[in-house]
Specification:
Pfam families: Impact_N. With 250 residues, the protein is α+β, with helices and mostly antiparallel strands. It has six helices and 13 strands. Strands 4-5-8-6-7 form a five-stranded antiparallel beta sheet, sandwiched between helices.
Length: 250
């Protein structure tokens, strides 16, 4: 076990492989709650196409309505976090009275689409292609079509679905989103206030305190911080504490 890490009951911990500044690895004991948090975060990161810890998404839900040869097309785009939120959005905006509710979404490397009754490859794929061309991540676009009586043909459908999606995304306000790193630190009770102050200064998210670590007088504080603030946060906490604290991170 690495120096400075106290042992906790075996019924309560899992092991993570951590590396020190010299590149040496050690298997260390961490609470099961932290193991679950790190595992979930790692799974989310693995499904992402984030470059250098950040990606571009749309800032809010947007829509675009267009009439093409008497058919009305309504494209609705929204930021999403995962497949579950994508289908929740679809359930919310789809119109059962419409002729078709076609869609596509992208979350990292994961992407799906659906033609919803249109000829294969003429609706979902063009929507998906428009999303990929926009270089926007974690987004879903639903295009609702009300048939106007004139058939568009295969090429016309591809241009219609792809075109309204592209235009909708071009008009959408975008934002740069920084990926979050899940971290935790063993904190003596008397230093909790100081550590909490530093965490608030760095605007970390999802702060939790676990007092059932098996270590008397210590709490395990877990949180998520912007990827480019990890080292600065560690240094700030260590500089303001009279004792060495042990950080865990994925």
């Amino acid at each position: 076990m690495a120096a400075g890490l106290a042992r906790v009951p075996s019924c309560y911990y899992h092991h993570l492989i951590l590396k020190n500044k010299n590149g040496l690895s050690a298997s260390v004991a961490v609470p099961a709650s932290l193991k679950k948090m790190v595992t979930n975060a790692a799974a989310a990161a693995a499904s992402s196409s984030i470059n250098h810890g950040e990606y571009r998404s749309i800032a809010e839900r947007v829509s675009l309505e267009k009439e093409i040869k008497k058919s009305k097309f309504i494209a609705i785009a929204a930021p999403i976090s995962d497949e579950e939120s994508a289908f929740a959005f679809l359930s919310e905006v789809r119109d059962p009275r419409a002729t078709h509710n076609c869609w596509a979404f992208k979350v990292g490397q994961h992407s799906r689409c659906n033609d919803d009754g249109e000829p294969s490859g003429t609706a979902g794929k063009p929507i998906q292609s428009a999303i990929l061309s926009s270089h926007i991540d974690r987004v879903m676009v639903v295009v609702i079509r009300y048939f106007g009586g004139i058939k568009l043909g295969t090429g016309g459908l591809v241009r219609a679905y792809g075109g309204v999606t592209s235009e909708c995304l071009r008009n959408a306000p975008t934002c740069l989103v920084k990926s979050k790193v899940p971290m935790a630190v063993d904190v003596p009770f008397d230093l909790l206030g100081l550590v909490q102050h530093q965490l608030q200064h760095f605007q970390v998210e999802d702060i939790e305190q676990d007092y059932e670590t098996g270590k008397d007088g210590f709490a395990m504080v877990s949180f998520k911080v912007d990827f480019d603030q990890v080292e600065k946060l560690e240094n700030a906490v260590k500089a303001n504490c009279s004792r060495q604290l042990v950080f865990y991170k994925q």
